[in-house]
């Protein structure tokens, strides 16, 4: 076996060894010099406040880019979405498609807007979309919906925790009435209990209509939380609105078998001749690649197995006004690629954690609404269809990138489009 090179210093060792103890202490120690530039106290978006922020920043060239005349004319539309506003960032938007979706809710050929700075990304998703469309489209099914918030309570001992739970289970109808009094669209669908020693975690699961729903469930659960604190016969020693069991903006294994947001699965069967024509490879090679990389993903400790859902989701979420931080949880899922009984390719994706909405959040901001309008999916009654399009887009990306690796085109495409 080849010998490992153990003489190379790591980055931290290199940096620290080049500084004396005094220099290191000086650099890393606290500094109490007066702050020379302070923001205006008010975080709100008003023309006067924006002007004061730019006076403080004193950077004319940056201001001309971030606060261009078009942004100035529209800036009041951002007042519910941002604090300490100074302008907007412009990202290139491309379209991938046509993507034929044969879903329970989405049934059309879609041209999907993607906002990204990564060259080759839109081209890859567009190629996968066209492949799916030529194969007759992706079959897509919304499987489940639910958004959770998980308040937690600490007690002196297990006996107190048990008495608390015994009271909680008698209050479900009351909790539902309180939670739903805070929202016109949210419905409390389920409550479950988790006990860990003298800690109790309550899992509140909601259906949130066409909104992504994080703020909705927070407000609703807080109303129940306050009721519990004032009426529980066993007062908790400590209590917090969320105990980090919900998986909010984190990749967690629990959603693989359950749901957070919208759970969607998509599949397609593609003839071997079409795979060879468009991806320059074979179903057998793509299946072999998938098996080997599934083992690699398992060795790495990956939660779920997929090639790059995050690429599609980040670009899609930013273009369409979704919460981009939710990519951390939404990118959990399973991709399968196999040779079907006719010698063609079977491919499927299952994403249990799509946090998408067509109302609320950033969906009504000018550019983001325009992207949803391109899809014909802005507003009430469209969130399930948006989730199905999102899953089909991820399927397109998996097919394209696996095909590129199998044909030896992955590096070539990035060299051609990104250099």
From TrEMBL:
<dbReference type="InterPro" id="IPR023076">
    <property type="entry name" value="HMG_CoA_Rdtase_CS"/>
</dbReference>
<dbReference type="InterPro" id="IPR002202">
    <property type="entry name" value="HMG_CoA_Rdtase"/>
</dbReference>
<dbReference type="Pfam" id="PF00368">
    <property type="entry name" value="HMG-CoA_red"/>
</dbReference>
<dbReference type="InterPro" id="IPR009023">
    <property type="entry name" value="HMG_CoA_Rdtase_NAD(P)-bd_sf"/>
</dbReference>
<protein>
    <recommendedName>
        <fullName>hydroxymethylglutaryl-CoA reductase (NADPH)</fullName>
        <ecNumber>1.1.1.34</ecNumber>
    </recommendedName>
</protein>
<dbReference type="GO" id="GO:0008299">
    <property type="term" value="P:isoprenoid biosynthetic process"/>
</dbReference>
<dbReference type="InterPro" id="IPR004554">
    <property type="entry name" value="HMG_CoA_Rdtase_eu_arc"/>
</dbReference>
<comment type="similarity">
    <text>Belongs to the HMG-CoA reductase family.</text>
</comment>
<dbReference type="InterPro" id="IPR023074">
    <property type="entry name" value="HMG_CoA_Rdtase_cat_sf"/>
</dbReference>
<dbReference type="GO" id="GO:0015936">
    <property type="term" value="P:coenzyme A metabolic process"/>
</dbReference>
<dbReference type="GO" id="GO:0004420">
    <property type="term" value="F:hydroxymethylglutaryl-CoA reductase (NADPH) activity"/>
</dbReference>
<dbReference type="InterPro" id="IPR009029">
    <property type="entry name" value="HMG_CoA_Rdtase_sub-bd_dom_sf"/>
</dbReference>
<keyword id="KW-0521">NADP</keyword>
<keyword id="KW-0560">Oxidoreductase</keyword>
């Amino acid at each position: 076996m080849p010998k490992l090179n153990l003489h190379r210093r790591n980055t931290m060792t290199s940096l620290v060894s080049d500084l004396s103890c005094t220099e290191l202490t000086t650099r890393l120690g606290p500094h109490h010099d007066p702050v020379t530039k302070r923001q205006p106290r008010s975080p709100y978006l008003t023309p006067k406040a924006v002007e004061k922020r730019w006076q403080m920043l004193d950077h004319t060239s940056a201001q001309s880019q971030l606060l261009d005349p078009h942004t100035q004319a529209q800036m009041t539309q951002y007042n519910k979405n941002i604090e300490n506003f100074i302008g907007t960032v412009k990202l290139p938007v491309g379209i991938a498609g046509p993507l034929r979706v044969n879903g329970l809710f989405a049934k059309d050929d879609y041209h999907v807007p993607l906002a990204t700075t990564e060259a080759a990304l839109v081209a890859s998703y567009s190629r996968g979309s066209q492949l799916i469309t030529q194969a007759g489209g992706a079959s897509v099914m919304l499987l489940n919906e639910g958004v959770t918030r998980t308040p937690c309570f600490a007690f002196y001992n297990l006996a107190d925790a048990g008495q608390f739970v015994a009271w909680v289970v008698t209050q479900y109808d009351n909790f539902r009435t309180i939670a739903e009094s805070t929202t016109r669209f949210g419905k409390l669908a389920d409550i479950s209990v988790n006990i860990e020693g003298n800690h109790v975690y309550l899992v509140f699961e909601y259906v949130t209509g066409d909104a992504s729903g994080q703020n909705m469930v927070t407000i609703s659960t807080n109303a129940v939380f306050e009721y519990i604190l004032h009426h529980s016969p066993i007062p908790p020693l400590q209590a917090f609105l969320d105990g980090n069991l919900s998986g909010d903006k984190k990749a967690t294994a629990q959603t693989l078998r359950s749901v957070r947001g919208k759970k969607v699965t998509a599949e397609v069967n593609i003839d071997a001749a079409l795979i060879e024509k468009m991806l320059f490879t074979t179903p057998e090679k793509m299946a072999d690649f998938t098996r080997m990389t599934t083992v690699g993903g398992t060795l790495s400790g990956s939660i779920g197995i997929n090639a790059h859902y995050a690429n599609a989701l980040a670009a899609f979420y930013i273009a369409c006004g979704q919460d981009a931080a939710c990519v951390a949880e939404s990118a959990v899922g399973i991709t399968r690629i196999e040779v079907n009984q006719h010698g063609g390719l079977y491919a499927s994706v299952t994403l249990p954690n799509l946090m998408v909405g067509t109302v609320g959040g950033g969906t009504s901001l000018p550019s983001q609404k325009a992207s949803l309008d391109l899809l014909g999916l802005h507003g009430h009654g469209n969130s399930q269809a948006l989730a199905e399009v999102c899953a089909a887009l991820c399927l397109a990306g998996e097919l394209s990138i696996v095909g590129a690796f199998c044909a030896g085109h992955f590096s070539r495409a990035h060299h051609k489009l990104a250099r």
